[in-house]
Write a structure and sequence with these properties.
Number of helices: 11
Family: Belongs to the protein kinase superfamily.
Number of domains: 2
Shape: extended
InterPro entries: Kinase-like_dom_sf, Prot_kinase_dom, Protein_kinase_ATP_BS, Ser-Thr/Tyr_kinase_cat_dom, Ser/Thr_kinase_AS
CATH topology of the largest domain: Transferase(Phosphotransferase), domain 1
Order of helices and strands: HEEHEEHEEEHEEHHEEEEHHHHH
Keywords: ATP-binding, Kinase, Membrane, Nucleotide-binding, Serine/threonine-protein kinase, Transferase, Transmembrane, Transmembrane helix
Organism: Rubroshorea leprosula
GO molecular function: ATP binding; protein serine/threonine kinase activity
Structural class: alpha+beta
Length: 421
């Protein structure tokens, strides 16, 4: 009986163990099946979202993955635009949207309101009138309105918008928007509170640019041109460099502006008639109708001499420069009277030497903008090194004088003690 009872117990135990094992196997198989079914489902969903789906019959294809990606990018762009510091006007304006160049487009009504119905005029150029615009957010911008009789036209307007949509540098004027509405063409720039270099050199303002500021302005301009020539892809030729197109911000840092006549280098071989401003145009360009980077270098050389002499090209600047070139110190005679006795004549001559090279009658003999930049930078570095040396000498002299003064006080005190004894 005991033997039979033991067999029953063993049988029940084995059966129970087998049951548990089978149940465990069923659980594991079920779990594995569900997991892989989920993975297959995810894979199918992923393939639906990323693979092109053909619609409208055989051979007609619509890439829905591109549509999805485009939608996501658009949503992200809208989010960034709403939070961008360059979103000057009301984000809910139905008239405003980003152009293909990425620059916001504004309605006529927006700009009319910001410029107080176009009454806040701050300047006039070949493009047309320039107005100061006060945005609801408190930001300030400059609005250039293309005049109907402007020497520049819609083509130049489109050139500027498309170029500045991809060109960004601290020494280039920043285009923050534009408007094509109600038959008007307008460009919206960051406001440059110190105006143009031309107005500072020849205007009626009482402010006089000192030599240090002029040297820094020359360096800023060279950095802007260097970006156009060597940093932009493809390179860009400005074609209308002049003091009126150099703007200065609140800290007197210069920025190159007005790209309406600019051309990418790939197109500079096309003859489209002479364009530019009298007094700044490269003579080689006049004779060949081919504008190159070295033509920009020539124009920059003229601007450098404007900084040195404060003589406008329309006031026979080049005649004065050519006469001054006859002697090594000739530039001293045409130096701006506001600078006489207030600057290093050595630095003036060094900068004039760079400008002379820029004006060489043979384009191949003119320096590249990189070489011009390095030349101006060396003048500034030597100036700073000299200032540091003078500062250290003055400090040492001050310390010596202080020690002498202390010794005199000590001697006076000892003399008083001896007299009292």
């Amino acid at each position: 009986m005991v033997y039979k009872a033991d067999l029953v117990v063993i049988g029940v135990s084995v059966g129970l163990a087998l049951g548990i094992l089978i149940a465990l196997l069923v659980f594991l198989v079920t779990r594995w099946y569900k997991k892989h079914a989920h993975l297959r489902k995810c894979a199918n969903e992923h393939s639906v979202a990323t693979l092109p789906i053909r619609t409208n019959g055989l051979g007609a294809s619509t890439d829905f993955s591109a549509s999805i990606s485009s939608s996501i990018i658009t949503q992200q762009s809208e989010h960034l635009q709403k939070n961008s510091p360059h979103s000057w006007w009301n984000h809910h304006s139905k008239e405003r949207f980003a152009s293909p160049s990425g620059i916001p487009k504004y309605s006529y009504k927006d700009i009319q309101k910001a410029t107080q119905n176009f009454t806040n005029i701050v300047g006039q150029g070949s493009f047309g009138a320039v107005y100061k615009a006060i945005m609801p957010t408190g930001g300030i911008a400059a609005v250039k309105v293309l005049a109907s009789n402007s020497s520049q036209g819609e083509k130049e307007f489109q050139t500027e918008v498309s170029l500045l949509g991809r060109l960004h540098h601290r020494n280039l004027a920043n285009l923050v928007g534009y408007c094509v509405d109600k038959g008007q063409h307008m460009l919206v720039y960051e406001f440059m509170s110190n105006g143009s270099l031309e107005s500072l050199l020849y205007g009626e303002e009482t402010r006089v640019l000192n030599w240090e500021e002029r040297l820094q302005i020359a360096l800023d301009i060279s950095h802007g041109i260097q970006y156009l020539h060597e940093g932009a892809v493809p390179p860009v030729i400005h074609r209308d460099l002049k003091s009126a197109n150099i703007l200065l911000d609140y800290s007197m840092r210069a920025k190159v502006a007005d790209f309406g006549l600019s051309k990418e280098e790939a197109f500079d071989g096309r003859n489209s008639g002479l364009k530019g401003t009298y007094g700044y145009i490269d003579p080689v360009y006049i004779s060949t109708s081919k504008f190159t980077m070295k033509s920009d270098i020539y124009s920059f050389g003229v601007i450098i001499f404007e900084l040195i002499t404060a003589i406008h090209p329309h006031q026979n600047l080049m005649e004065y420069v050519n006469l001054a070139a006859m002697s090594s110190d000739g530039i001293d005679e045409i130096l701006d009277k506001q600078l006489v006795g207030k600057c290093s004549i050595v630095e003036v001559r060094q900068l004039a030497s760079i400008a002379h090279r820029c004006l060489h009658k043979l384009q191949r003999k003119r320096p590249s903008i990189g070489e011009v930049t390095q030349g101006i930078l060396k003048i500034k570095q030597r100036r700073l090194a000299k200032e540091d040396t003078m500062s250290s000498v003055e400090e040492e002299l001050s310390q010596v004088l202080s020690r002498i003064g202390n010794q005199q006080i000590e001697l006076t005190r000892l003399g008083s003690i001896m007299e009292s004894d």
